[in-house]
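Table S5 (text form). Sequence records supplied for joint modeling of the two-component complex.
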Amino acid sequence: MADADLSQALRTRLLHAAAARRPLVIRGSGSKDFLGQPSAGEPLEVGGHRGVMRYAPEELVLTARAGTPLTEIEALLAQHGQMLAFEPPHFGAAATLGGTVACGLSGPRRAAAGACRDFVLGVQIIDGRGRVLRFGGEVIKNVAGYDLSRLMAGAFGTLGVLLQISLKVLPAPRCERTLAFESDLAGALARLAEWARRPLPLSASAWVNGRLWLRLSGAQAAVAAAARELGGETVDGEQEPWSALREHRHPFFARSRPLWRLSLPPALPSPKLAGGWLLEWHGAQRWLDSDEPAPAVRAAAAAAGGHATLFRRNGAAAAIPVFAPLPPPLLALHRRLKTVLDPCGILNPGRLYAEF
Amino acid sequence: MSAVATNRSAALLRQLAAVLPADGLIAASEALAPYECDGLSAYRARPLAVALPHSAGQVAAVLRLCHAAGVPVVARGAGTGLSGGALPRTDGVLLSLARLNSILGIDPANRSARVQPGVRNLAISQAVAPHGLFYAPDPSSQIACSIGGNVAENAGGVHCLKYGLTTHNLLKLQLLLADGTPLSVGADALDAPGYDLLALTTGSEGLLAVVTEVVVKLLPLPPRARVLLAAFDSIEAAATAVADVIAAGIVPAGLEMMDRLAIEAAEAFARCGYPPDAAAILLCECDGTGAEVDEDIERVSAVMRARGATQLRVSRDERERAAFWAGRKAAFPAVGRLAPDYYCIDGSIPRRVLAAVLRRIGELSDEYGLRVANVFHAGDGNLHPLILYDANQPGQLERTEALGVEILKLCVDAGGSVTGEHGVGVEKLTAMCHQFAAPELETFHAIKRAFDPAGLLNPGKAVPTLARCAEFGALHVHGGRLPHPELPRF
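The corresponding structure-token record, covering 846 residues in total, follows.
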């Protein structure tokens, strides 16, 4: 598909939808249709609004239209020895930049490098009234105005249709090495907590089925020194688990029970919930494959200071909300913010929370 | 003030006194003087009173009372801000959070610390150092500035190229809305559900909520840091070297630049051994493990040499590293000795236009007849031109402010921003009109109303009114269409 600027056509669709108060369901490639609450409305296809607008490697900034495929962006960055440091999951060959930012998803490097929102520098959006707005910009440091660009990350399109996104990019590490260790879950958590406190070049970790994986990234000397110190066995190429983990192609994710994503303080002992566990981000992200009732999962996460997302429903009752319910004052504020940017309630209504 | 208003404020002061500790309310005129301004002392105003609560509960009580009375509240941390964000209102209460200054907990295993807003930035890193951890954002005022103020301004520092701004280093905030409603945003875990209100409230300059508790992210202390000092005989060469370092795949912990006037001033002030004949110097710090740092410094040195550095020195130990930084850290006071007053600008630009923008600032400096020293965060394109002036000379302050606006416009037109890390406050309201179009400014005002419908938290700061932008004729125009043709223009 060729690069194209569809912003005027998209804006016209929005203006009509707003006038008629007809909800729209924003769709890039559809790779993340499975994620979030169901939202009903006319599809607004944004995948055709694509193309990298600006990229200067020495600026560490890339600006692209929202429909640009992630693979295209990653290939361009790789040509210049750079990367999206939040290592986003694609969940589909045609995944777009817009969908990635709207869903706010981050991959294995998140614990070390930061989340999707941390790399958003600026956005251009169409709000629910059909106005084209720009927030943030293309510079690393910018504190002019409220930070509405990061607000768009993880808003699931409920606050605006993303047209363009400027991201901070980073040099790819000069050297990477994956280590593997035998360990039970508790042992893995203890080791990760100990390692994460030390100045080691850790860029990813995972634990599943008695095996702890660790990725070291950085200067040659630093990676070599850390590998010598930590021990374990070195894992090469095909055996490295990172892309399979990121894309949920690892066998763990092929099960048929509801898949929960628990976000917890990393050093916390494993909650007493029955099911299969897979840990990432030094213990901060924990996948749970389980038939435990939703209230039990949510209560255990909340008691630990975290929260649980029903990432893949896999048969769980439709009435269970995908995202952890918000306390009333916070929910009220969410509704008011939604009204600011989408007063007619036409942008992906209910996709994040049924209430707005 | 009318008699009715006086009576009303007397009643409010009595109510405030009842909820605050004995020494928690200042209303006597002379005692208010130290609170008249923040770090931007050109703007001053005396508030109705200063409230100094000791606890979050007292903060909430103050907010509830002021909300009920319809009286504006301006929150203040340590008062080191450089944009007038904590400038009091004569019809409002100044809410000092300085006495909420306890570190409530350090959680080394989860690499976080829970602190009150009045805790000093540097005090956090000092408290967690025994655990081998630190809090990364390090604004130059870190010895004095408070973490609550850092959150309000989304403060940066010398090391944000590698470690990010305040917004990248927070986990959770306890907030109070204008009416005293408590709200928790973010979480002790990552990626809290719902909208990213942590991002929205960080850097909101006290207009959306008052911070009563902060959970910061901590990082392992890098075991080693070395700094390289490179001299260049042209600004262009130094600016190109900055881009080359980044393009070579190195993200230094800090990459700072000083021009000739700043070098001369620093040398005279701190005797730091900077080459006095250089047109520009770069200070490039790399941190990490010993081997990593040596490897990076070697690569940076090669880039600098290739760009024609006339002198290259690398710190051999901590003493020398401190000596290299001494001149940079003393640059503001050093430049301050060159003239009775100076005015610090905070624009940010894409790195590729660094040399062109600096050249144009030099031309503007000549046109306005005001000297400008440049000392700034070159690595992330955050300029800090220091305009030298004498406030006692009639017209000089006005000319200085006009030059400041010119420089900020230059930054916006070059694809940058009117503020990289100091915030808009009262200072850059007019410049904001140049950066944002009317619908964007309207959206900001609507966001403010969503948090604070009565408009009582730090009103009038950070976001200009559309009327103001129309008056200054500076409203950003999209595609040649003048927004809001119905507004009068002067």
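Note: The two ends of chain A are 34 Å apart (CA to CA).
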